[in-house]
Amino acid sequence: ELISSLRSKLQTLWEERELVLSEARECAERGEELEAMVQDVCKPNEFERYMMFIGDLEKVVSLLLCLSSRLARVQNAMRRIDGNTDAEEKQSLNERHKLLSRQREDAKDLKENLDRRERVVSGILAKYLTDQQLQDYRRFVQVKTFLLIEQKDLEEQIKFFEEQLENLEKSIP
To answer: Which end of the chain has fewer CB within 10 Å, C or N?
Structure first.
């Protein structure tokens, strides 16, 4: 029953992932349309700022998600530390926790910088785009960010349930 339940949950997650990937493709198409429009109306240096912002958006959000995920795994491992855990492993986990915490703080600084850049890009676009076009741009940025987060979350859940299923199947003779 448990194996069947895990397989069913995995099937649901795979279907959700396909939907999110489909939405991501639609979002990418919308991004290409926006890019062409921005290139048509903006000066070359303004267009370059826009492109750098859009490229960095994905990188910074992905970095933050990755670091948060790794930090959560280390914190879970630290919670499992008991009297039988050797000192070397404890020290290793503590060092990884400190390093990942620092890296995540640095990534948060990058995100704050990216948010400032987004306001600058919005200001530039506001000079050229209609209110509706500007609203479309802002919605694109929000959707792109949401889809990145959703994809990462689904990948984590799928990985977790696949590991659970694998461990369960190995435990049954």
So the answer is: C
Q: What per-residue string of b and e applies to 99-109 under the rule 16 or more CB within 10 Å gives b?
A: ebeebbeebee
User: What are the tokens at 147?
Assistant: 């889809």
pLDDT score of 82: 84
DSSP 40-77: HHS-HHHHHHHHHHHHHHHHHHHHHHHHHHHHHHHHHH
Angle between helices 87-128 and 44-79 (to 10 degrees): 160
End-to-end CA distance of the chain: 16
User: Residue 96 has which token pair?
Assistant: 């990884």
Q: Is 47 in contact with 160 (CB distance < 8 Å)?
A: no
For residues 108-127, give the mean pLDDT: 96
